[in-house]
Each structure stands twice: as structure tokens, then as C-alpha cells.
Design goal:
The protein has 195 residues and is an alpha+beta fold. The protein has four helices and four strands.
Amino acid sequence: MKDMEDLERLREKEFAERVERIQNTMSRFKKIAYILMVIAAAFMFFHMRKDYNNYAGSQLVMAEVVDIEGASDENISVTYRYNIAGKEYESDKIQYTEKSREGDKKEIRVNKNNPEIILKHNDINLVIFYDVMIGLCLGLTVLCIYEMAICTLPSAVEEVKTESVGFTTKPGVTFASIVEENKKKNEKINTEKKI
């Protein structure tokens, strides 16, 4: 009977250690997920701030297409000429391939502080939409990674179920007798398979 009590105490100690390891691992995952969320939020804040500064200090101008060069299969380099406050500027913009010819008039968005800089998009709402979508995707990615990591850990309930299955005994039955009984059953099954 004392062996059974010792075995039960040992089992409870092992179970407590496993639960503690699982809790420590989950705590680490939570900390890592929190750190990744902070990094993603900081990245998005600075990215959105940069876009805000660029587009808040910008204006739409009518420009003339001066030259078109094929930069790659997907993009072209277009040189625009435009006037701002009586001063003429000429600048390049890499953009998607579109039907443009020299002499066409196009609306472009330029930085007010530095009119030689042509911004990528003309629509401010589109830029805000892109920034919000990138932020949501980063946040969801971090949450998915966290959830996948947590799902791979065994839960405490699963641990209890697997631990208690092999040690259910009747009073007076020792662990050694259970092992011997299982060995006999396995030998019997193996001899039956051979025949």
C-alpha cells in the first residue's frame, strides 16, 4: 500500500512539473506575441506617419508626359514636366505599364515642400486603405502564429487523461502486478499473431 502512495505522490509531482512547463511555455509565447505586436504597431505607426507627412504636404498638378522608358516588363519610367507657382519642374516616376504617349496630359501628386518628388499614388484614400490593410495583416499574422503555437502544446486536461489511464487500480493491487499482467497479455497476443 505504501508503494501505491509513493507512486501516486510521484505521479502528482510529475504532473505538477508538466503543468508548470506548459504554463511557462505559454507565458513565453504570450510574451513573444506581445513583443511582435508592439513591433508591428511601431512599424505601422512610423509607416503611416511617413505617408501622412508625404501626402498631407502634397498637391495634385497637371503634367505633360515628356519621355517614356521601359524599366522592366511590369513597370515603365515616365518623365513628367509640370509647373508649380510659375516654376517649371521635370521629374521621373516609375509606374505600372499603362497607355501613355509623349505629349499626354496626366494628373500627378507632388510633394509641396520638394516639388521634384512625385508621389506614387494620386488618391490619398487609397494610401490610407493600404496602410490600414497592412496593419491588419501584420496583426492577424502575429495572432495566427500565437494561436498555432498554443495549439501545438498539450493542454492540462489531456495530460490528466493520459496520466490517469495507466494508473487506475483497485485497493491492494500494486503497480508491479499490473505490469506483470500486461506482459502476460502482450505475450498471449503475440503468440496468437504468430499462429
